[in-house]
């Protein structure tokens, strides 16, 4: 009976989604582009132009203080403007309407979503772009507290047009201090060593608050800024965070803790720098009806992994949770994920069918068929995009990925090799058409894994290009670090692993990165911090991932 009810409900939801998508097809979706951003939104031209302009000026502001070498062209960051609760549901079903936005640095598609109906949208996007920006710097091993603290510091920037205000109060962080009371602040040693845990003594929000306060304090004075630079260099070189801070500042952790407390008790330092930010060129175009109708499905399909095994979904057991209760929650999570995937496939195919001659519809259809395991159909769907006249990078990349997936499922070694060579031909064409897509280089790496002599110098070079194009991606960094270790370059592996191992948010990737970092340090003949491999180490940050409301910590 329950299955019949769910089937009926799924059918109703599918119809509702398609009808909603149909109304989106008549929406006036616009695309605004600058040198560094592509912004999409069902908003007015004035609104989308202003948003693209402010993001471009914010990028210019960060580059003023943290210059990034520009010897190569970087991919543009995509930002999708969600206009309230309805768009949030289209972007990510189940997303609370209170969410102000999120940033997704997954290798499959690095992008951000901003809820323009929220008053906190700018703060969240400035914070998240701070993360995106930091990963492009050559100093790859910033400690977790500074990664979050700097993003929080610049998250409150206000661009008034004729002036920019930096270092403004962060009401949410100040509230955390008030709620804690002056005698229960997070100890500085815990902040410096990522020891704050959602299930431990201190909340993640307390960690963010002190990270913001310490960053603000260190940046607000020229001598302290110089000390901060010395500290960051020492930590990047492998020094203990607490010892490095005392060496750089001449203050013990307890003394520095009190210094920050006194600093917050007075008027904190804000800046209105005497700089002129360039006025960016913003090009606004109207998106075609099929693109408007498929924009959210297209984004969601990129976030969905091609391979799916419900048994891989296993939420961790909560404190005090019985084994039976945990088993029920795992079963529910697996069923929900399976149903969500089926609904995405069904909705994508239904909406794409309304646009039979559309390039976007062909790409959406092929990816939905691929998720459904219909690989032959998916490849056939892409045929119009694989001609010499089409010159379609995405079509060729997807074709290569599908052929590689088919080849890997074969048993005959010769057939596998032939299939992989055919896949690489399409991937090579995709690389020629769009050399700035990191997904092509990762797919080429996939086609080589397990092959003779892997990883070769050429394999390492392929992953290095992916690392240059997508330094924000933990997957890219982990792959490159493993390749460095396999070829005997442990110190290069340490550098590339730093941001993943130092990530403030607890995750399986961070745990794996810390284990790999310990292996790299050992291979380099350096001491291994036991906390790197401790399961309970560094559980800083809020649970729930990327999405943030105005009251929560941005991730």
The percent range for helix content is 55-70%
Overall geometric form = globular
Number of strands: 9
* Residue fraction in strands: 5-15%
Main sheet strand line-up: 8-1-2-3-5-4-9
Provide the CATH topology of the domain at 30-138 and 282-286: Glutaredoxin
Alpha-beta classification: alpha+beta
Low-confidence parts lasting 5 or more residues at pLDDT below 50?
1-26, 196-201, 535-555
CATH class of the domain at 30-138 and 282-286: Alpha Beta
Amino-to-carboxy terminus distance: 41 Å
The major sheet is characterized as: 7 strands, mixed
Report on this structure.
- Among the domains are: 30-138 and 282-286, Glutaredoxin; 169-269, no CATH class; 456-543.
- Helices cover 56% and strands 7% of the residues.
- It has helices at 2-25, 45-65, 85-91, 121-134, 144-155, 171-180, 188-192, 204-219, 222-236, 241-249, 253-265, 289-303, 323-352, 359-371, 375-381, 393-408, 413-433, 438-448, 457-469, 474-486, 490-501, 508-523, and strands at 30-33, 37-41, 77-82, 99-106, 109-115, 158-159, 164-165, 283-286, 548-549.
- β2, α2 and β3 (77-82) form a beta-alpha-beta unit.
- α6 (171-180) packs across α8 and α15 runs antiparallel to α16.
- The longest helix has 30 residues, at 323-352.
- The radius of gyration is 24 Å and the shape is globular.
- The two termini are 41 Å apart.
């Amino acid at each position: 009976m329950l299955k019949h009810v769910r089937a009926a409900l799924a059918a109703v939801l599918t119809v509702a989604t398609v009808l909603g998508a149909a109304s989106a097809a008549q929406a006036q979706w616009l695309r605004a582009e600058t040198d560094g951003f592509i912004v999409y939104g069902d908003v007015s031209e004035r609104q989308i132009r202003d948003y693209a302009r402010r993001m471009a000026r914010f990028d210019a502001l960060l580059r003023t203080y943290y210059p990034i070498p520009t010897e190569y062209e970087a991919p543009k960051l995509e930002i999708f403007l969600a206009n309230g609760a309805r768009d949030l549901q289209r972007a990510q079903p189940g997303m609370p309407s209170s969410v102000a936005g999120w940033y997704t640095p997954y290798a499959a598609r690095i992008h951000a979503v901003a809820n323009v109906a929220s008053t906190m949208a700018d703060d969240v996007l400035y914070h998240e772009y701070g993360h995106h920006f930091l990963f492009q710097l050559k100093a790859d091993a910033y400690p977790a507290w500074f990664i979050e603290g700097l993003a929080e510091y610049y998250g409150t920037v206000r661009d008034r047009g004729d002036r920019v205000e930096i270092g403004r109060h962060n009401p949410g962080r100040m509230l955390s201090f008030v709620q804690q009371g002056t005698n229960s602040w997070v100890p500085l040693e815990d902040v410096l060593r990522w020891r704050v845990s959602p299930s431990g003594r201190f909340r993640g929000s307390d960690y963010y608050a002190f990270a913001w306060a310490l960053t603000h304090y260190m940046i607000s004075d020229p001598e302290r800024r110089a000390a901060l630079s010395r500290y960051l260099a020492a930590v990047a070189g492998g020094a203990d965070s607490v010892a490095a801070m005392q060496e750089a500042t001449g203050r013990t952790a307890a003394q520095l803790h009190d210094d920050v407390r006194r600093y917050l008790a007075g008027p904190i330092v804000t800046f209105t720098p005497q700089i002129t930010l360039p006025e960016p060129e913003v090009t606004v175009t109207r998106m075609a009806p099929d693109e408007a109708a498929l924009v959210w499905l297209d984004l969601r399909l990129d976030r969905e992994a091609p391979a799916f095994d419900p048994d891989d979904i296993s939420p961790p057991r909560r404190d005090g949770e019985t084994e039976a209760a945990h088993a029920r929650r795992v079963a529910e999570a697996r069923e929900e994920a399976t149903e969500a995937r089926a609904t995405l496939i069904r909705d994508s195919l239904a909406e794409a069918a309304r646009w039979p001659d559309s390039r976007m519809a062909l790409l959406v259809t092929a990816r939905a068929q691929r998720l459904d395991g219909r690989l032959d159909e998916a490849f056939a769907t892409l045929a119009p995009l694989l001609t010499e006249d089409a010159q379609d990078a995405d079509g060729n990349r997807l074709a290569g990925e599908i052929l590689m997936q088919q080849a890997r499922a074969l048993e005959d070694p010769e057939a596998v090799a032939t299939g992989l060579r055919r896949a690489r031909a399409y991937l090579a064409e995709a690389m020629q058409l769009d050399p700035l897509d990191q997904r092509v280089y990762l797919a080429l790496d996939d086609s080589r894994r397990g092959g003779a002599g892997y990883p070769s110098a050429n394999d390492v070079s392929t992953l290095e290009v992916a690392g240059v194009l997508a330094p924000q991606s933990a997957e890219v960094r982990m792959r490159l670090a493993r390749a460095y270790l396999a070829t005997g370059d442990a110190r290069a592996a340490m550098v590339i692993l730093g941001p993943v191992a130092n990530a403030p948010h607890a995750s399986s990737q961070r745990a794996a990165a810390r284990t790999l970092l310990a292996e790299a340090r050992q291979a380099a003949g350096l001491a291994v911090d036991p906390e790197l491999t401790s399961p309970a180490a560094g559980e800083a940050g809020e649970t729930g991932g990327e999405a943030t409301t105005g009251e929560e910590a941005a991730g």
